[in-house]
TrEMBL record:
The chain crosses the membrane at residues 7-29, 350-371, 380-400. It comes from the Bacteria. This is Membrane protein. Gene3D superfamilies: 3.40.50.880. It comes from Clostridium neonatale.
């Protein structure tokens, strides 16, 4: 009887457990069914690689209130590993809400998973494929913010640029811009090359809209604003520093009388200011005094020509920076080396450690033993030997103090462009690592932009990869973000770029003169830190000044270390390192070569990152000057290291004893004016590759009375291929003339015929696929 009751009780308990589990499953299923998730990507479904991809997640909740997170999971180049991009979301019952999350999509990844979570519980999940909508890197991606898109000619803007990379004409791809996209984050619109605002009520903008818009501009965006008859609607008080004092009607269109802080008049006609230009770090702002949709003026040829010239130039510079890794998710090889190798001032002396160990063995194993034996006190060895061991441990600890890393290692590589203004722009690369395995959180400091770098620079087919293991987590909190790494290995560097930081940096005092291939004068180090390597660069000539201590003034009188630019100088550094130190048994001067690889990496990185902003003559100073971006790792101690590369434009006097200005071969930088589709000019290596024609212009300026122009090559031992021909444009005959570029250069007869408005034009033709040098010019003249 008791057994049968026991059996009945067991059956009842089992049934109750099953019912409870079934109930929870039904509730969970009901919760899932009560939520609908729709996912869209890009801006109107369009996007560009190498920029953040906005993922728009629309959530409709017909169930209970939800306080949770939306997480977008993205495939990485590591198999079965994903990166997560997260933001908090609160959705009331019977509410529909849309959140936009910017993500980094790897080159070969296409699958993303959107997860709605509450704590660790997944409420709803949806996986999509990012397929159509990708825009070519060489198309102008434009967002238009307007109440009336009809008639805006900039929608159809196209222009011809460097054909080898751009494939001929650059065409516009346009999307309508939603004001909500700008309010989320500048990262949501980072893929846009240009934003056009015309006939739009900017009173809808908040401070957050303006902040995000200006961050987008400062990172290379082109902003075009139309005013004219809609000025009262478009121009608001304190709107981007723009104000207007009435309008006037002219020939079927209206011009606004504008005042714009720090702007210059970029286009004027018949005494009327038509377009203003304002530079903002890497970006540009253009404000038209007319409505961009008014066909009576926007259709004019000179207006269209202006947009093609200016926007075309800005766009090409932006793409060049992208190729130089300035905006890319990838970093140059040399930057990776700098971040992975911490610049410790003092290395551990292995000889000292071996000597201490030998002394320890002799003292504890022989000397102490025999002394105690002779004294008949061998029983005291059990106490004496531990004491001696502790003393030697303290000595070893003291020796390693300078090389010891604290809880967090913060390795910074900083590039400072000192243009003489009060505050200099700093572009940073940082590596963050933990001393011991653990979890790491890297928070984005206030007023700077932090972006993680992709470290997997290889291709992997991830079609079968699953979302199993978390790689990194990016969490968006209001206007800032932070990155989480779980169970990070000891000293595993996580790498980031830092932008939008400014720092006050004093300028170096210089007084330099060039004559007969010799640079002389003096330079004073006013930085407050020792300069490990100081270079003076004038186009292709590089003078190595060496090391200058803080406050030191150095007199110089030297010939160029390299006459073929920074690329050859960088190669010479490494050749000297391997020939005179690494492969030399005597090992040479260890102190001289201690930081040579770090210096070489810094110089090579600079050439890629700042190739468009260095100018013709400048100084490169490599130091350990500290830069404070404002990183905070909570209560963890930090070992901070800085490698800082400062560049500063410098004036060099090229006047000889007779008062004639002698600009050496290569001083005037060749700029590509036009090119065929399959030919490319690389100014870093001073080389042309491919087949076809490429035309260069050399901006000599109009302030010289020209006495002589010589055209030649920098490297006299260079062997060209591809059956090259070189032509120079004669402005009197209005034709290109063939010219023979000799080893010593070719002096032009009647040089004034080949220069107009301060510009010399040279064309190189490769009739077959091959390579050759970019021609260079030297100029003599008197100042007008």
């Amino acid at each position: 009887m008791k057994k049968s009751r026991l059996k009945i009780l067991k059956v009842i308990i089992i049934c109750m457990v099953v019912i409870m589990n079934l109930s929870s499953i039904l509730v969970y299923a009901d919760e899932k069914d009560s939520i609908t998730i729709n996912v869209k990507y890009g801006i109107e479904g369009k996007y560009k690689n190498n920029y953040e991809l906005p993922v728009n997640v629309e959530i409709e909740n017909k169930g209970e209130n939800i306080n949770g997170q939306v997480e977008v999971r993205v495939q990485t180049n590591v198999y079965d590993t994903y990166d997560a991009f997260v933001c908090d979301v609160n959705i009331d019952s019977n509410e529909k809400k849309t959140v936009t999350i910017p993500i980094n999509l790897y080159e070969n990844s296409s699958k993303i998973s959107v997860v709605l979570k509450s704590g660790n519980n997944i409420i709803k999940e949806k996986t999509i494929i990012v397929g159509s909508g990708r825009i070519d890197e060489y198309s102008l991606f434009s967002g238009i913010l307007t109440d009336d898109i009809n008639g805006i000619n900039l929608r159809t803007l196209s222009f011809n640029v460097d054909g080898r990379r751009f494939g001929g004409d650059v065409k516009s791809v346009n999307v309508g811009l939603n004001i909500d996209m700008i309010s989320e984050s500048y990262k949501s619109i980072s893929a846009l090359d240009m934003i056009i605002i015309n006939n739009y009520d900017l009173s809808k903008f908040t401070d957050k809209h303006y902040k995000n818009l200006m961050e987008w501009v400062s990172n290379g965006g082109i902003l075009v604003i139309g005013t004219g008859e809609n000025s009262a609607k478009t121009i608001k008080e304190n709107n981007l520093g723009i104000s207007y004092n009435g309008t006037k009607d002219l020939n079927g269109y209206t011009l606004a009388n504008l005042e714009i802080k720090d702007a210059t008049v970029a286009l004027e006609k018949d005494g009327e200011n038509l377009i203003y230009e304002l530079d903002n770090e890497k970006g540009h702002i253009y404000v038209a005094a007319f409505d961009l949709a008014n066909q009576n003026i926007s259709n004019e040829d000179y207006i269209e020509y202006f947009w093609k010239e200016h926007i075309g130039k800005n766009f090409v510079n932006k793409v060049d920076r992208l190729y130089g890794y300035s905006n890319s998710n990838y970093s140059p090889y040399e930057i990776t080396n700098l971040l992975n190798n911490i610049p410790i001032d003092k290395e551990i002396n292995i000889g000292s450690i071996v000597g201490i160990f030998v002394c320890y063995c002799l003292i504890t194993g022989i000397l102490v033993y025999f002394i105690m034996k002779k004294l008949g006190k061998r029983e005291l060895l059990w106490g004496i030997i531990p004491i001696i061991s502790i003393l030697f441990s303290i000595m070893l600890f003291a020796i390693g103090t300078n090389t010891r890393i604290k809880d967090v290692a913060l390795n910074q590589v900083n590039f400072i462009l000192n243009d003489g203004s009060k505050e200099s722009t700093v572009k940073g690369y940082i590596g963050v690592a933990l001393k011991n395995r653990g979890n790491l959180i890297v928070k984005e400091p206030d007023n700077v932009l932090l972006k993680i770098l992709n470290e997997e620079n290889y291709y992997r087919n991830n079609s079968q990869s699953e979302f199993k293991k978390l790689g990194s987590k990016t969490v968006y909190k209001e206007s800032n973000s932070y990155y989480e790494f779980e169970n990070l290995s000891s000293l595993k560097m996580k790498k980031f770029t830092v932008s939008n930081h400014e720092q006050i940096v004093p300028s170096l005092d210089t007084n330099l003169k060039y004559e007969s291939n010799v640079l002389n004068g003096n330079i004073k180090n006013t930085l407050g830190n020792d300069i490990e390597k100081l270079l003076v660069v004038s186009s292709n000539s590089v003078w190595d000044i060496g090391k200058i201590k803080a406050g030191e003034e150095k007199n110089i009188d030297i010939k160029p270390t390299s006459s073929l630019g920074l690329s050859e100088y960088s190669n010479k550094l490494m050749d000297d390192y391997y020939n005179s130190y690494r492969n030399n048994k005597s090992k040479g001067d260890k102190e001289k070569y201690k930081d040579i690889i770090r210096i070489q990496n810094a110089i090579s990185s600079l050439a890629q990152i700042e190739s468009n902003g260095l100018g013709t003559t400048y100084i490169i100073a490599i130091t350990n000057m500290p830069v404070d971006y404002g990183f905070n790792f909570d209560n963890r101690s930090v070992s901070k290291y800085d490698t800082t590369v400062m560049t500063q434009k410098v004036n060099i006097d090229f006047t000889d004893k007779d008062g004639i200005l002698n600009y050496p071969m290569g001083y005037f930088k060749p700029v590509v004016l036009s090119s065929s589709a399959y030919i490319y000019a690389d100014d870093y290596y001073n080389e042309i590759n491919g087949q076809g024609d490429v035309t260069f212009k050399y901006e000599v300026g109009s302030d010289l009375d020209i006495l002589n122009i010589t055209i030649g090559n920098l490297n006299k031992q260079y062997q060209s291929s591809g059956n090259q021909k070189i032509f120079i444009y004669n402005n009197e005959s209005e034709k290109y003339e063939t010219i023979d570029v000799k080893a010593k250069g070719n002096d032009l007869t009647n040089p004034k015929a080949y220069i107009k408005d301060g510009i010399v034009k040279v064309q190189v033709s490769l009739e077959e696929d091959g390579y050759t040098q970019i021609p260079q010019i030297s100029v003599k003249g008197r100042a007008k």
